Amino acid sequence: MFALLVAKITALPLFAVASNVTCSSKSGFLGLPPWWEYLNQPTPPQCIVNVNWPGGIWAIGLAVLDMLLRIAGVAAVISLMVSAVMYVTSTGNPDRTSAALSRIINSLVGLAIVLVAAAAVAFIGNRI
Question: What's the gap between Cα 50 and its chain centre?
Fold first, then answer.
């Protein structure tokens, strides 16, 4: 029953690939990967993604997690740039300088965690 529901949902035009894009396109919205990244790639001309129960749900979950990690990486880089501007504009004030340095260190640690997690998700997703 659930497999039939998933098949009906994935057959909706919302989940279909545009006709001018190849089915195996790896670039999605704003450079994020498509939700079917770790599933078997759709084949032309219909470009319908087949989701197997329950293994396909894990692959979709990993793809969504990969998208969230990429967004977190962008947020960490933006935080690093903002904290660098804070450091440059601290004008010798020791409190603002130490706050900016602390934020730089926290941004770098967050970026390192995101990179390791994204590598782990990509490794696991490619092995499924």
Answer: 21
